[in-house]
Design goal:
Strand content: 25-35%
Largest sheet: 9 strands, antiparallel
Number of strands: 12
Number of helices: 5
Radius of gyration: 20 Å
Helix content: 25-40%
Length: 208
């Protein structure tokens, strides 16, 4: 695991400033990448230290009555939600509805993840070993967490636990690991633009 979110992306995730679909893909990465979990804990600790430096403000006259009216906090932490069936073990997908796997090309299957409040389109992608995807670029963001297996393209090799953070500046031709195949979760904003003659022929038939 060598590819992780940028500092800006992780800080925006920690602050709750990301679109829910993009945040879901980051959350999947955090779930399976221990180093990023530690980085996120450091950000939370730093945020707490900043709060300690802020001058305190007097409480409002109704603060006591509001605190009494609040429901008591549970004594035990809630159990971690279980991963939905056939969701590659991702517990972060528990609150979401998953579509069925559908073929979107030779050796490639896709299942949509319904995130109603998101502007990004979220889906899981599963590719057979050795699959070569058409060269393409994006008009927006393409954030990917690799859940199992691996792929590589012009910017490096991405294996289970890695995070691939691409945008409209990146054009790539992913090639799936010849032995392991690859399963990942992806959030897209904007559109996919295939390149080359084969890609242009495929364009009308692929809706991501």
């Amino acid at each position: 695991m060598s590819h992780r979110p940028s500092d800006e992306t992780l800080a925006a995730f920690a602050a709750g400033r990301l679109d829910e679909g993009l945040a879901l893909v980051v959350a999947a990465h955090v779930e399976i990448n221990p180093q990023t979990r530690r980085d996120l804990a450091d950000i939370d600790a730093l945020s707490g230290a900043f709060l300690d430096e802020i001058e305190p403000e007097p409480m409002g006259v109704d603060a006591r009555s509001l605190s009494i009216a609040m429901p008591p906090r549970p004594a035990e932490r809630p159990k971690r939600p279980a991963a939905p069936h056939d969701a590659a073990g991702l517990a972060v997908l528990a609150p979401y509805t998953l579509g069925r796997w559908q073929s979107v090309g030779r050796g490639v299957a896709l299942r949509r993840v319904e995130v109603p409040s998101s502007e990004a389109r979220v889906f899981m992608l599963r590719a057979q070993p050795g699959t070569r995807l058409p060269a393409h670029r994006h008009t927006g963001a393409e954030w990917t967490t690799i859940v199992a297996g691996a792929y590589q393209h012009e910017y490096g090799r991405y294996a289970a636990g890695d995070f691939d953070e691409a945008d409209d500046r990146h054009a790539h031709t992913p090639v799936v690991d010849p032995r392991e195949g690859c399963t990942c979760i992806v959030a897209l904003t904007g559109n996919v633009r295939f390149e080359g003659m084969i890609g242009r022929l495929l364009q009308p038939f692929v809706r991501l």
